Amino acid sequence: MSPTGGPLPGSVGQILYFNKPADAALANGANGQPVRPVDGVALNEPPLRAAEAPVPDVPPLPLPPPASRYLPPQGGLAPPPAVTVSLPQPVLAQPPLSAVQPGEVTSTSKKAIPPVPPEFVQLPTRASVFTVYDDRQLEAAIRDRVLRDNIASLEKQIQSATDPKTIDDLRARLARDKKTLLDPASDASYAFPELPVVSPPGVAYRPKTLDYAPRQVLIEPNYVVHRRLHFEERNAERSGWDLGPAQALLSTGYFWRDTLLWPQSLASACVRGPWDTSAGKAGPGCPSPYYLYPLGLTITGTAAETAILTGGAFLLP
Question: 276: helix, coil or strand?
């Protein structure tokens, strides 16, 4: 429809009028019937008959021309004036880095870089690394190092001192340290104390643990060693399996099977030993699946079993 409420020019169709009360959910048609929101047709409203005259369309109204302020000028829109903003730029220029060797003169400072002293960059000799001192040699090395450090410190203090009395005192200490460096026995203050005698010479070392009372340690294994069980049903007697009424028949079958294989079990016990352990078995009463254990046949037991059965067949008619 046009902005004035009428149909657009050139459109063909019918005009439907609807009203919607304030408390109604849907709009009503021409006969007061609710309207489907899908196609805009009133529910249960009879279609228009061909005899009825159609309602004429409302003629369109001419629209006023748009305001002149919405029209662009004749030459088009003028571009907006350019705005120039000048901001201070930070200075990040740095001189390029160049490899400067020790002792060379740079173009910026015009000063020579002093070389690194050799004692700070050179590795110690193999003799100083792998040499092992005894007690006397170690004491002499420590005393020599301390005296040399004291002499170097005193020489620096003498050069910076201004009081004549202080200079004389420092020179006296310097002369005493130099004399001690040449003759360590001249100054007893640098001598190490004697080590205490733990035991007299010629006495063998005897540790005090020899006088301790003997101790006992009890180590318990996590398994039990027992005699071989020739008639054991592990599923029922150890794991607690019970098959109800069929358990009696199953236990009877296990008993006669073990009775038949008893000579084989006795003969194999003579080779492997008449004992067994609980290692690798489930604990008594522990829930475990129903296993089918192997018979445990051996060559020795099978030979003895065959001999006994063959001999019994000849002895018993």
Answer: strand
